[in-house]
Predict the 3D structure of the following.
Amino acid sequence: GAGVSQSPRYKVAKRGQDVALRCDPISGHVSLFWYQQALGQGPEFLTYFQNEAQLDKSGLPSDRFFAERPEGSVSTLKIQRTQQEDSAVYLCASSQGDSSYEQYFGPGTRLTVT
Amino acid sequence: QKEVEQNSGPLSVPEGAIASLNCTYSDRGSQSFFWYRQYSGKSPELIMSIYSNGDKEDGRFTAQLNKASQYVSLLIRDSQPSDSATYLCAAAAAGKSTFGDGTTLTVKP
């Protein structure tokens, strides 16, 4: 079946612009996770949804970052007033249960802030 | 100190050898443990999960977990050049997965 999809795959934004990154999880997967991955590092947790409920947003770096999953399926990660330090790959993953279950990653969105 | 620690490598092994990758974690509340493989420029791909102490084998891969020592390892038998990648260890607890920075493995033909 179809895996996790993310769009856009690449995004270049001028500093100060707002961006929206989309994640479409595997059909039927209850949980959805967002991670930020810098070059040479492992994914860093940003936030976690179980259905439409955002259960943990402790990893969001600042109040410029906002995520939603209004109908318990597709999720959007929004970054307002982008800064150069926001440049990274943003990964979305989904799982059948909570994080104790296997997570399946999408291809990621590479964000470059100029 | 990171919550999940891995040797960054690079780890280089000849084709056909056993590659041994190690990981330690600090959160004793961690319940589930995962190994992901990440090729350069690609996203992580789940290769093994382990939930209880002991060994778990899947093909050429064996994961080992020792909760008392807070230690997880991955053995890759009969290593192939296509196994060359970065291997990420993750520990999950309370709805959150924490990843190490990965070990880069190179398998030389």
Chain A touches chain B at residues 31, 33, 35, 40-45, 48, 50, 55-56, 58-59, 91, 98-108 (CB under 8 Å). Chain A is about 0% helix and 50% strand. The two ends of chain A are 37 Å apart (CA to CA). Chain A has a mean pLDDT of 95.
